[in-house]
Design brief:
Layout: H1 2-9, E1 15-18, E2 21-24, E3 29-36, H2 46-65, E4 69-71, E5 74-75, H3 76-81, H4 85-93, E6 98-104, E7 110-117, H5 118-129, E8 145-149, E9 163-165, E10 171-173, H6 180-185, E11 190-192, H7 198-204, E12 208-217, E13 220-223, H8 225-237, E14 246-249
Parallel strand pairs: 8-12, 8-14, 9-13, 11-14
Antiparallel strand pairs: 1-2, 2-3, 3-7, 4-5, 6-7, 9-10, 12-13
Helix pairs in contact: 4-5
Length: 256
């Protein structure tokens, strides 16, 4: 019964396929796999084959990590190429990937799945880019988060997206909006396919503001001025943008 309840409550994650792996933008993980195969005529040694698979998995994860979009205009490879302290710390964090599943076959083949948590890996860059200042006093509005419905749009997935008020308008939300503490705890947003996804509720809370995106330009997600004004007014009375309580809903358009 417990398994059925878990399955029923599961939601389809937002997954971006990459050559050799994928990014789960709901779980905020880079995922990859590798295989170890026995040589013909040799006795099966699972430990050796697992080590062979691991030796292929590590470089695959590291290569894929460089292709993850950090902002609409910058990849993590760009961050790693910079000669600074942040790049050094990111390079250290690349080693934090883990084997998440191992499968052993009678043929001797061994398959390993691995994952790299994007929040931990990119924490130095997230904290370095955060500029928000914590609000003084308690919130005056009950808004707990922001849910942006971008379904039907060609969203460019990025760890730190940019929300802008129409084309050429002011930036509503970006990495710099967050406080450094929030950036040390979470990525600026989570992507889901359904606003009722438990991941969306955990991030945006029980009383989020919901707005519709109108387009995407150069990777930035655009809101019309009415929606942008609603976000600004809500953010003036509650710290949900400062804390990164933002959800972006993507996928096929729904409804009329």
């Amino acid at each position: 019964m417990i398994l059925l309840l878990v399955a029923a409550g599961a939601a389809e994650p937002v997954v971006e396929k990459l050559a050799g792996g994928q990014v789960d933008w709901t779980a905020l993980q880079l995922q990859a796999g590798a295989t170890g195969k026995p040589s013909g005529g040799m006795a099966v040694d699972y430990a050796t084959l697992e080590g062979d698979a691991r030796s292929h998995l590590g470089p695959t994860v590291l290569e894929l990590a460089r292709r993850v979009q950090f902002t609409p205009s910058q990849t993590t490879g760009d961050l790693l190429a910079a000669e600074n302290v942040v790049a050094d710390r990111l390079d250290d964090n690349l080693g934090s990937w883990e084997v998440t599943e191992a499968r052993y076959y009678e043929s001797g083949k061994v398959e390993l799945d691995g994952a790299l948590g994007l929040q931990y890996f990119l924490r130095p860059a997230l904290v370095a880019g955060a500029r928000g200042q914590e609000r003084e006093g308690p919130p005056t509005l009950a808004t707990t988060g922001l849910v942006v419905d971008a379904r039907g749009l060609d969203v460019r997935y990025a760890v730190a997206p940019v929300l802008r008020a129409s084309e050429g308008g002011p930036v509503i939300y970006e990495l710099a909006t967050l406080t450094s503490y929030a950036a040390s705890q979470r990525t600026p947003c989570v992507y889901v396919r359904d606003p009722a996804d438990p991941a969306a509720v955990r991030r945006a809370g029980e009383a989020p503001l919901q707005v519709r995106a109108t387009g995407v330009l150069d990777g930035e997600i655009l809101l019309d001025f009415t929606a942008a004004r609603a976000v600004a007014e809500a953010a003036s009375g509650a710290p949900f943008l400062l804390h990164g309580n933002v959800v972006i809903v993507t996928g096929p358009a729904v409804g009329p």
